Amino acid sequence: GAGVSQSPSNKVTEKGKDVELRCDPISGHTALYWYRQRLGQGLEFLIYFQGNSAPDKSGLPSDRFSAERTGESVSTLTIQRTQQEDSAVYLCASSYSGQGGRKLFFGSGTQLSVL
Amino acid sequence: DQQVKQNSPSLSVQEGRISILNCDYTNSMFDYFLWYKKYPAEGPTFLISISSIKDKNEDGRFTVFLNKSAKHLSLHIVPSQPGDSAVYFCAASAQTGGFKTIFGAGTRLFVKA
């Protein structure tokens, strides 16, 4: 596709369940980000994949959160044992790496609701 | 530690007037700054950017000003239009930080017709 694709667009889950959120970046983009936006809040950095380098996981809020990326393509963000405070919009963005990758392209996000 | 700060949660301006959105940062290693615009239920989209070697960048109705000594940047929209009503995010990145992009909390702009 032409843009960053995220699925599902909406996810409702029960507290304590695990969820997986998927991101398909723009082809050729070697950098991939996950951000979280809670209601009324800003964009909170979660994790950053840059090419073959080790991912920057400094923004993951707890060990219940993890993310993987297959090569330079699809990424999956997994939240284990979901809590109500995990309810948010999860946004994925991709870009080229290095100096040419300053501009991020975002998907439409996954709205996660934990009941 | 918030490295990028947008202290005004919202701003309301009249159509045709100037909108000024402000952003402050704390990390002196940031060398590139961007503004993104976000409508409800959509992802943010890039609006305008500026390198730290410049102090001004203009694109149509949008101008970004950078004051490095004050670690402050601002986005000017003139004239403001109702379609500009959205949330605006300030963002910054540093080459030394592996180009990781950090965002501010956003400012919601209302442009009244």
Would you write up a description of this structure?
The complex is a heterodimer of chains A (115) and B (113). Chain A is mainly β and 115 residues long. Chain A has one domain (5-103): Immunoglobulin-like (Sandwich). Helix content of chain A is 0%, strand content 45%. Chain A has no helices and ten strands. Chain A has strands at residues 5-7, 10-13, 19-24, 31-37, 44-50, 65-69, 75-79, 88-95, 105-106, 110-114. In chain A, strands 2, 4, 5, 8, 9 and 10 form a six-stranded mixed β-sheet that branches. A four-stranded antiparallel β-sheet of chain A has the order 1-3-7-6, with no helix packed on it. The model of chain A has no long low-confidence stretch (mean pLDDT 93). Chain B is mostly beta strands and 113 residues long. Chain B has a single domain (4-112), classed as Immunoglobulins (Immunoglobulin-like). In chain B, strands 2, 4, 5, 9, 10 and 11 form a six-stranded mixed β-sheet that branches. Chain B is globular and about 45 Å long. In chain B, 35% of the residues are buried. Classes of the chains: A mainly beta (115), B mainly beta (113). At the A-B interface, β4, β5 and β9 of A face β4, β5, β9 and β10 of B.
- Helix and strand succession of chain B? EEEEEEEEEEE
Query: Any idea what the shape of chain A is?
Result: globular
Estimate the strand proportion of chain A.
over 45%
Q: Name the CATH architecture of chain B.
A: Sandwich
Tell me about the biggest sheet of chain A?
6 strands, mixed
What does the oligomeric state look like here? heterodimer
Task: Count interface residues per chain for the largest interface.
Answer: A-B, 26 and 24 residues
Number of helices of chain A: 0
The helix/strand series of chain A, from N terminus to C terminus, equals EEEEEEEEEE
% residues in beta strands of chain B: over 45%
Number of strands of chain B: 11
The Rg value of chain B, from CA coordinates, equals: 13 Å
